[in-house]
Amino acid sequence: MQVIGSIIWVLFSVMIIIGGVVGCFTPLEVVASLAFLLPIFLCVGGVADILYYFRVKEFAGAKALLFSGIFNLLLAIIFFSMGVESTSATIVYFVAFLAMFRGVLAFVYAFDIKQLHTGAFWVVLLLGVLNIAVSMIFIAFPAIGGITIGIMISLFIVLFGIASLLGWWSARTLFGR
Predict the structure, then answer these.
(1) Cα angle vertex 80, ends 75, 81, to 5°?
(2) Which of 4, 43, 73, 97 is least buried, going by the fewest C-beta atoms within 10 A?
């Protein structure tokens, strides 16, 4: 089961990175499809976080993973109930909030990783700060965020995929190869 979980984690991370890169070249399609797919992504990610929490619950930082999973499931329920029209109207602010939330989680997680001496501390910390910076841009300039949302979301997705791969690398180091 450990090997299967590791394979799924890496495949999910690589798919996220590829999707983000493709989205950089098709930003209008990203915005249109995101309003529909966002609740699905949140639901799948939330379930994955919660399932993985039960594997690592005795380690530092595991509660942040559980909180992230529950939070994603709650947001998925909200967006499923709102419908596509309402979701697309609030997407700029939602993405800003999600980027800030993920940035803070990455920031906190970086200090947990630092204790493992895996070398990923600075990268995860930088990704957390970048997520927070992107969220501030979205909040301060929603018109700019609305115009460039497809590209910005795609870049956010790439950063999240990279952070997920780094999380896999750290977990692999923690549990042994």
Answers:
(1) 100
(2) 4
